[in-house]
Specification:
The protein is α+β, with helices and mostly antiparallel strands. The chain is built from 5 helices and 6 strands, in the order βββααβββααα. A hairpin with a 6-residue loop joins strand 4 and strand 5.
C-alpha cells in the first residue's frame, strides 16, 4: 500500500520569474481591505491593494499550454505624495501627478498598461525558498510595442461584493479579502439593504 499523492499546490515546483527588467502588462488590480503586517505586528493595519502583471516575453508551459509568467505586488492603498503606490503609478504612466490628480486617480485607466518591470530574487526567512519579487518599474521606451494582455483584465473593490471578478480569484485570496473589516461592513450593509427591500416589497403587496 502506498500513501495517496498530495493535492497541495505548494508541492509543485515554483516557477520563478527571472531576475532583471522585463516588459510587463498590468492586468489585475484587487482591493484587499485593511490588514496587519505579519512581519511587523506593531505597525498600524493598512488598507492594501494587489497589482498583478503578466510578462509576455517570459513564458512557461503550464499543463502543456504556453502562458506568460506573472508577478504580483501588494501596496498600501494610498496615493499620498511619498507612497510607493503613487510612485509606481507615476512610473507606469510616465507622468508626475499633482496631489489633486493623485487623490482623484482612476485605477481603471491602468488596466492593460505596459511598463518595464524590475524583478529581484529574495530568500525566505529560513533560507529554504527563493521568490521572485517586484523591485520597481519604469515607462516603456519609445518604439516598444505593448501587446494586448492574454489574461482577462480585472479590477475589484470590496464594495463590489461576491461579483464575477471575486469569484474568479483564487480561494486563498478570497479568504484574505473576507478577513478584512471592510468586507464585513459591506456585507452587513448589503444585508440591511436586502431587508429594507424585502419590507418595502411586502408593504406594496398588502
Amino acid at each position: 500500500m502506498k500513501a495517496p499523492k498530495s493535492n497541495n499546490t505548494s508541492d509543485k515546483p515554483r516557477v520563478l520569474v527571472p531576475a532583471g527588467t522585463h516588459l510587463a502588462i498590468l492586468y489585475s488590480i484587487v482591493d484587499l481591505g485593511t490588514h496587519s503586517n505579519s512581519f511587523r505586528p506593531d505597525d498600524k493595519p493598512k488598507r492594501m491593494v494587489r497589482l498583478t502583471w503578466e510578462l509576455p516575453k517570459k513564458r512557461h508551459d503550464f499543463d502543456g499550454v504556453s502562458k506568460p509568467l506573472s508577478i504580483s505586488k501588494e501596496f498600501s492603498f494610498s496615493m499620498y505624495e511619498k507612497a510607493t503606490l503613487r510612485k509606481t503609478v507615476e512610473s507606469i504612466t510616465g507622468a508626475t501627478l499633482s496631489n489633486k490628480d493623485a487623490d482623484n486617480f482612476d485605477f481603471n485607466q491602468l488596466l492593460g498598461a505596459g511598463c518595464l518591470l524590475s524583478v529581484k530574487h529574495v530568500k525566505s526567512q529560513d533560507g529554504t525558498k527563493t521568490y521572485s519579487s517586484f523591485s520597481g518599474c519604469a515607462p516603456v521606451m519609445e518604439g516598444m510595442t505593448v501587446s494586448k494582455p492574454e489574461n482577462k483584465l480585472a479590477i475589484y473593490s470590496i464594495e463590489d461584493g461576491e461579483n464575477e471578478v471575486f469569484q474568479a480569484l483564487p480561494d486563498w485570496l478570497k479568504k484574505k479579502i473576507q478577513e478584512a473589516p471592510e468586507w464585513k461592513s459591506a456585507k452587513i450593509a448589503t444585508e440591511d439593504e436586502d431587508r429594507k427591500s424585502t419590507r418595502l416589497n411586502s408593504s406594496h403587496r398588502t
